[in-house]
Amino acid sequence: MGKYLRKLWAFVGLLILLPFSPQALLAGPGDGEAAWTGTVAVDSPATKQVKTLIPVVLSADNNYAPQMYMAMLSMLKSAHGDTFYHFHLLIPPNFEQKYKDEIAKFVNKYECKITFINMGTALSDLAPELGSPAAHYRLLIADLLKNYMKCIYVDVDTLVRHDLAELYNIDLGDCYIGGVKDAGIFSKCAWIPGATNYVVFTLDLRLYVNSGVLLMNLDLMRKDGLTGKLVSAIKHGINGTKPFLFPDQDALNTACRSRIKTLDIKYNLFSIIPLLNGRSQKFQEDMWDLVGREQFEEVCKDPWIVHFAGTKPWLYPSLPYAKDWLAYARETPFYDEIMSRASPKATPASESAPQASSAQ
């Protein structure tokens, strides 16, 4: 009898350990997700530790695949010991295998799970002037992650400097999304001429957030059919007459209108902001008006997520926080590839106009 019990326990032990093997952690869409509810038990030879499970979504085509790897690396290296990221990577059908292979190696070194989601022809019917469909895959997340109540979406041109559990645990209440006010729009020194008037008067949006970092209330979005509304919004643009200026961002803000929670600017600090702050007294005062002087100054010292919106660190290596980004990039297998595509430039002047949209 004892012999059979030992065999039974050995089999049960195998079942417990199996989901955390590298092979099992590389899942296809929906594989095993029903069991992922918010915490996960991770076995090690010495202990069994319960970790906070945080679903994170990133999206990229081949042009931004190396940056996707970089953003994931920064998340994993800044994660606390009790955080377990489940990455959902939204990719087009032609996403190169070499990128998949290198990204897959993360599960051998870090405690995480990776799900590649082949988006097929999703959003391929959008007008060409709206840009790459990969930049708009975020509009479909609620229907893609059906077994999660909420998630974090992060653009790949970001540097994550702190653990994301605090962001993930923010209560969204009856809001569809949480995001950071778009500094490029609401600054009176708007980088894009007419952007503020476009958002406030054309779109009638007094609260407008950048879509580069989002906390998403997936359960509520599904209940209210937000995915269909988001797709309809980006296809119809402004009153069905002309396309949005910042397609996915405008669609999200329009469809989620009045159901958006404003988040601390530390979760999505544009890299160029400290530079402009140092060069323009007017810009500085406008930012103080937008987020508060004390908060703004503290955030610039230690942002949680730096977003290289418009101005990229591989193009402008003297940008604020670019040195940190490049240090991470050197740890990736794609550093030479990233830099070979770049023509390094001087630090952008204060009159430069980085895109306010988070679109890649």
Based on the model shown, name its key terms.
disordered C terminus; alpha/beta; globular; Spore Coat Polysaccharide Biosynthesis Protein SpsA, Chain A; three-stranded mixed sheet; disordered N terminus
Provide an overview of this structure.
The chain has 360 residues and is α/β, with parallel strands linked by helices. It has a single domain, classed as Alpha-Beta Complex (Spore Coat Polysaccharide Biosynthesis Protein SpsA, Chain A), CATH 3.90.550. It has 17 helices and 12 strands. Strands 1, 2, 3, 4, 5, 6, 8, 9 and 10 form a 9-stranded mixed β-sheet that branches. Strands 7-12-11 form a 3-stranded mixed β-sheet. Helix 11 packs across helix 12, helix 13 crosses helix 14 and helix 14 crosses helix 15. The N terminus and C terminus are likely disordered.
